[in-house]
Give the backbone structure.
Amino acid sequence: MMKLLFVDDEQTFLKYLAKRLVLDGFTVKTTFSGEEGVEAAANQDFDVAVVDLQMPGIDGIEVQKRLKDLQPNLPCIVLTGHGSVENALESGKYNAFKFLSKPVDMDTLIETINAAYDYRVQQDKAGDSDDFPAGTKKEGAIKKMYGKFRKLYGVEK
Protein backbone atom coordinates (compact mmCIF):
# COMPACT_ATOMS: atom_id res chain seq x y z
CA MET A 1 0.00 0.00 0.00
CA MET A 2 1.35 3.42 -0.95
CA LYS A 3 2.29 5.67 1.99
CA LEU A 4 1.63 9.37 1.51
CA LEU A 5 2.83 12.29 3.60
CA PHE A 6 0.64 15.40 3.46
CA VAL A 7 1.92 18.71 4.80
CA ASP A 8 -0.67 21.50 4.77
CA ASP A 9 -1.86 23.99 7.38
CA GLU A 10 -5.46 23.96 6.09
CA GLN A 11 -6.83 21.25 8.37
CA THR A 12 -10.36 20.98 6.96
CA PHE A 13 -9.02 20.66 3.42
CA LEU A 14 -6.42 18.10 4.50
CA LYS A 15 -8.89 15.96 6.48
CA TYR A 16 -11.22 15.85 3.46
CA LEU A 17 -8.34 14.88 1.14
CA ALA A 18 -7.07 12.23 3.54
CA LYS A 19 -10.51 10.59 3.92
CA ARG A 20 -10.93 10.50 0.17
CA LEU A 21 -7.44 9.03 -0.44
CA VAL A 22 -7.88 6.39 2.27
CA LEU A 23 -11.06 5.29 0.49
CA ASP A 24 -8.97 4.98 -2.67
CA GLY A 25 -6.58 2.61 -0.87
CA PHE A 26 -3.74 4.91 0.17
CA THR A 27 -2.14 5.11 3.61
CA VAL A 28 -2.09 8.79 4.55
CA LYS A 29 -0.15 10.63 7.25
CA THR A 30 -1.46 14.18 7.66
CA THR A 31 0.64 16.91 9.24
CA PHE A 32 -0.53 20.48 9.72
CA SER A 33 2.81 22.33 9.69
CA GLY A 34 6.15 22.12 7.95
CA GLU A 35 7.88 21.22 11.20
CA GLU A 36 5.42 18.38 11.85
CA GLY A 37 5.87 17.08 8.28
CA VAL A 38 9.66 17.04 8.56
CA GLU A 39 9.45 15.28 11.93
CA ALA A 40 7.15 12.61 10.44
CA ALA A 41 9.62 12.02 7.58
CA ALA A 42 12.48 11.71 10.07
CA ASN A 43 10.64 8.86 11.81
CA GLN A 44 8.99 7.02 8.93
CA ASP A 45 9.56 6.37 5.22
CA PHE A 46 7.00 7.61 2.72
CA ASP A 47 6.48 6.91 -0.98
CA VAL A 48 5.21 10.35 -2.00
CA ALA A 49 4.89 13.72 -0.23
CA VAL A 50 2.27 16.36 -0.99
CA VAL A 51 3.37 19.73 0.38
CA ASP A 52 1.58 23.06 0.52
CA LEU A 53 3.78 25.95 -0.57
CA GLN A 54 2.46 28.68 1.76
CA MET A 55 2.44 27.79 5.45
CA PRO A 56 3.24 29.60 8.69
CA GLY A 57 6.58 28.55 10.17
CA ILE A 58 8.74 26.75 7.66
CA ASP A 59 7.24 27.05 4.19
CA GLY A 60 6.86 24.43 1.47
CA ILE A 61 10.23 25.20 -0.12
CA GLU A 62 12.09 24.68 3.16
CA VAL A 63 10.04 21.53 3.85
CA GLN A 64 11.10 20.15 0.46
CA LYS A 65 14.79 20.85 1.21
CA ARG A 66 14.56 19.04 4.54
CA LEU A 67 12.56 16.12 3.13
CA LYS A 68 15.17 15.70 0.39
CA ASP A 69 17.92 15.52 3.04
CA LEU A 70 15.95 12.91 4.99
CA GLN A 71 14.60 10.87 2.07
CA PRO A 72 16.49 11.74 -1.13
CA ASN A 73 14.18 9.77 -3.45
CA LEU A 74 10.92 11.09 -1.98
CA PRO A 75 9.01 12.88 -4.75
CA CYS A 76 7.21 16.05 -3.61
CA ILE A 77 4.02 17.26 -5.22
CA VAL A 78 3.58 20.94 -4.41
CA LEU A 79 0.12 22.41 -3.86
CA THR A 80 -0.28 26.12 -4.15
CA GLY A 81 -3.04 28.63 -3.98
CA HIS A 82 -0.40 31.24 -4.75
CA GLY A 83 1.15 30.09 -8.03
CA SER A 84 4.04 32.53 -8.32
CA VAL A 85 6.73 31.76 -10.86
CA GLU A 86 9.64 32.45 -8.47
CA ASN A 87 8.23 29.99 -5.94
CA ALA A 88 7.73 27.38 -8.64
CA LEU A 89 11.31 27.82 -9.83
CA GLU A 90 12.65 27.76 -6.28
CA SER A 91 10.68 24.57 -5.56
CA GLY A 92 11.87 23.06 -8.83
CA LYS A 93 15.42 23.23 -7.50
CA TYR A 94 14.42 20.87 -4.73
CA ASN A 95 12.90 18.29 -7.01
CA ALA A 96 9.27 19.31 -6.94
CA PHE A 97 7.73 16.48 -8.93
CA LYS A 98 4.80 18.61 -10.04
CA PHE A 99 2.85 21.75 -9.15
CA LEU A 100 -0.89 21.62 -8.65
CA SER A 101 -3.06 24.65 -7.98
CA LYS A 102 -5.65 24.73 -5.23
CA PRO A 103 -8.48 23.91 -5.25
CA VAL A 104 -7.04 20.65 -6.52
CA ASP A 105 -9.07 18.24 -8.65
CA MET A 106 -9.16 14.86 -6.89
CA ASP A 107 -8.64 12.78 -10.05
CA THR A 108 -5.70 14.95 -11.10
CA LEU A 109 -4.18 14.63 -7.63
CA ILE A 110 -4.52 10.83 -7.62
CA GLU A 111 -3.06 10.60 -11.15
CA THR A 112 -0.15 12.80 -10.09
CA ILE A 113 0.46 10.77 -6.91
CA ASN A 114 0.53 7.56 -8.99
CA ALA A 115 2.91 9.14 -11.52
CA ALA A 116 5.18 10.35 -8.70
CA TYR A 117 5.14 6.87 -7.18
CA ASP A 118 6.06 5.27 -10.53
CA TYR A 119 8.89 7.78 -10.84
CA ARG A 120 10.03 6.91 -7.32
CA VAL A 121 10.04 3.19 -8.11
CA GLN A 122 12.21 3.87 -11.18
CA GLN A 123 14.60 5.98 -9.07
CA ASP A 124 14.81 3.24 -6.44
CA LYS A 125 15.53 0.59 -9.07
CA ALA A 126 18.26 2.77 -10.58
CA GLY A 127 19.87 3.17 -7.14
CA ASP A 128 19.52 -0.45 -6.01
CA SER A 129 22.80 -1.68 -7.44
CA ASP A 130 24.51 -1.20 -4.07
CA ASP A 131 25.96 -4.06 -2.06
CA PHE A 132 23.49 -3.83 0.82
CA PRO A 133 21.25 -6.78 1.58
CA ALA A 134 17.63 -5.87 0.95
CA GLY A 135 15.46 -5.58 4.01
CA THR A 136 18.09 -4.41 6.47
CA LYS A 137 16.41 -1.91 8.76
CA LYS A 138 19.05 0.79 8.42
CA GLU A 139 19.63 0.26 4.71
CA GLY A 140 18.46 3.79 3.79
CA ALA A 141 20.53 5.46 6.51
CA ILE A 142 23.63 3.46 5.62
CA LYS A 143 23.27 4.27 1.91
CA LYS A 144 22.81 7.94 2.80
CA MET A 145 25.91 7.91 5.02
CA TYR A 146 28.04 6.25 2.34
CA GLY A 147 26.68 8.71 -0.21
CA LYS A 148 27.78 11.62 2.01
CA PHE A 149 31.25 10.11 2.46
CA ARG A 150 31.55 9.56 -1.30
CA LYS A 151 30.68 13.21 -1.92
CA LEU A 152 32.93 14.44 0.89
CA TYR A 153 35.95 12.52 -0.36
CA GLY A 154 35.15 12.80 -4.06
CA VAL A 155 34.84 9.04 -4.49
CA GLU A 156 32.60 7.91 -7.34
CA LYS A 157 30.60 4.70 -7.15
